[in-house]
Amino acid sequence: MKLKGIHHVSAITANAKKNYEFYTKILGMRLVKKSINQDDPSVYHLFYADEVGHPGTDLTFFEIPNAGNTYPGNHSISGTSLRVPNDISLDYWINRFDKFKVSHDGITTENGRKVIHFRDHENQRLTIVSDENNHGVSGGKPWKHSNASLTHGIIGLGPVKLTVPDSEPTIAILTEVLSFKQVGSYPSPIDGQEDILVFSTGEGGTGAEIHLETRNDLPREKPGRGSVHHVAFRVDNDEELEKWRERLMEARLPNSGVVDRYYFKALYFREPNRILFELSTDGPGFATDEDTEHLGESLALPPFFEDQREEIEANLKPLETKRSHS
């Protein structure tokens, strides 16, 4: 059994409206699902992705209105990257970030790829990464109505960075349980720190990597707005997810068991550095309950929440996401 790559990354925002404006109007991603946090139906769960929400293109946010600031540190998912087609695309994004006054660090090279490290309005740690030399998992396709360039638009999730004080236990889970292999390393940008290790799964490439940073000089991260809640990895189908559950049991890793999220099935567990991992099926997908042309335009509730719709809608602050179809 091999995981197929990154499925999605879920982060925290304190303001759904401002979040929606940044990720759709500046980054040009498509809101493919406006739903609720199934563990707390009083708040939004927003899903941004490519044209139809292909697995591996999906960055999601839980709205937690009273979330405080994030204090970055250890035991964390410390970086999320977004793939763009090639090196020339980075020039487009530099100009766009300057136009919209988005904080960024310019174009640099990391692990042999051109990247731009940048932050959203809540200091979410993000990276644009070039797919120029990608020979692994293919990216998605920008939405035809995107606010950003279709030629240079975001085509999916790239490598996810983890920061831990002791890498060995995490390496053991990645390689002995989850099918990742170490495929390289690159120097830490912080003087005196160990190299950042690169792990890959499935077809490999930009959409299938974990970058593991060891930092014994940092406190534990205090999460809040702008922090990442979990990273999910792609599993082919329900049958395979059940086999992964059995493998976690054999490895004596406490886990959630299979959870039906309606748009996919999920399985959650924490690795030894307490980072939350999820295994998610590729299907059935976001078009299960909405027409592809109208994804994300109205509040979508899984059937098991439909009888609470009136109460749920009354508790949510209105968020206008309907597109004009003229």
From TrEMBL:
Matching CDD domains: PcpA_C_like
Keyword Zinc-finger included in the entry's annotation: no
Keyword Oxidoreductase part of the UniProt annotation: yes
Domain VOC residue range list: 5-131, 156-282
Molecular function in Gene Ontology: dioxygenase activity
Organism domain of life: Bacteria
Keywords linked to the UniProt accession: Dioxygenase, Oxidoreductase
Coiled-coil ranges from the UniProt annotation: none
Name of the protein in its database record: Ring-cleaving dioxygenase
Organism name: Ornithinibacillus xuwenensis
